[in-house]
Amino acid sequence: MVGVTEVVTNTAPPLPDEAATAAAGAALASGVRIRTLAEVADLGAVSRLFESIWRPAPGNPLVTAELLRAMVSAGNYVAGAFDGPELLGACFGFFGEPAKGGLHSHIAGVATAGHGRGIGFALKLHQRAWALRQGVTEISWTFDPLVRRNAHFNLTKLAARPARYLPDFYGPMHDGINGAGDTDRLMVAWDLASPPVRTAAAGHPGRVDAAALRDGGAAVALAAGPDGGPATGAADAPVVLVAVPPDIEALRRTEPELGRAWRVALREVLGGLLEGGAAVTGFDRAGWYVVAKEHTS
Q1: Topology of 15-201 in CATH?
Q2: Alpha-carbon torsion 162, 163, 169, 170, what sign?
Q3: Sign, CA torsion 169/222/120/50
Q4: I need a surface site. Which of 2, 210, 213, 226 has the fewest CB within 10 A?
Q5: For every residue of the chain, which 3-state class applies, written as one string?
Q6: Count of CB atoms within 10 A of residue 160's CB?
Q7: pLDDT tens across 170-225, in order?
Q8: Nearest-angstrom CA–CA distance, 18 and 14
Q9: Cross-strand bridge partners of residue 190
């Protein structure tokens, strides 16, 4: 009897091709064309877009066209999302420590006219596909952990994971978004090849249910009190829930003292948990970080 050798062929596309397909699909769904930028005119448009979003103090632009030009010429990443000739979003990143081989995504923003279309998601998937083509497997960036929609976007839609809590990372920024308060940030790491990221890029992000976790014994270490300010509790369970307010940006304008109180409380609670070795494992869109203390070494 003649033996038969079964040959199993892996028909899955290489990861860079898979990422490019996901990025193209996200751009199509949001109705934009995304491309990397190198010309001074385009880079000037990016600088002006960022200024229109963040509204920095006069004479203090977030980034100039000249700096972007230098960054691009050195091989870094600048891309824009266009609806016809109109620039609706942009993203800028630069390479980090040579030994780590990662990319740091410094600024990403979408104009008000482009909100609600998924343009930010499409830009990040374009950046992921570009990075994988360069042999990069991790992208890092920072975001304000008090901004609920950003936490949902970064931790749920993109499946990035917080690596560090950084108190007053930038110092006073005096712009239309951050105000003059402390600029605490979460540094996140985006493992471009991880199963959660690949699933999220395909449009199927993982989700957590804080209410179910609370019913199952999770501790509530920070919640909103009756006055809308922070109310601290105990972090005495393996899973801990940490709340953020519904709209910190509005709170900073209308009740700045409460806004500052939330900053201090989140720094102490979430920052303290991460400093102690716990890990953020997800974010419930209702406004809860889910923290696992069993990651403590």
Answers
A1: Aminopeptidase (3.40.630)
A2: negative
A3: negative
A4: 2
A5: CCCCCCCCCCCCCCHHHHHHHHHHHHHHHHCCEEEECCCHHHHHHHHHHHHHHHCCCCCCCCCCHHHHHHHHHCCCEEEEEEECCEEEEEEEEEECCCCCCCEEEEEEEECHHHCCCCHHHHHHHHHHHHHHHCCCCEEEEEECCCCHHHHHHHHHHCCCEEEEEECCCCCCCCECCCECCCCCEEEEEEECCCHHHHHHHCCCCCCCCHHHHHHCCCEEEEEECCCCCEEECCCCCCEEEEECCCCHHHHHHHCHHHHHHHHHHHHHHHHHHHHCCCEEEEEECCCEEEEEHHHCC
A6: 28
A7: 987 766 666 668 999 999 999 999 999 999 999 999 999 999 999 999 999 999 99
A8: 6
A9: 139
**Residues 206 and 196 sit within 8 Å (Cβ to Cβ):** yes
Q: Cβ atoms within 10 A of the Cβ of 3, count?
A: 4
d(CA 167, CA 170): 9
**What are the structural domain ranges in the chain?**
15-201, 210-295
How many CA atoms are closer than 13 Å to the CA of 100, on its beta-carbon side?
A: 12
Q: Which two tokens stand for residue 5?
A: 């050798």
> Encoding tokens for residue 161?
């994971």
Average pLDDT score, the chain: 93
Going by C-alpha positions, the residue among 127, 123, 119, 274 that lies closest to residue 188 is 274
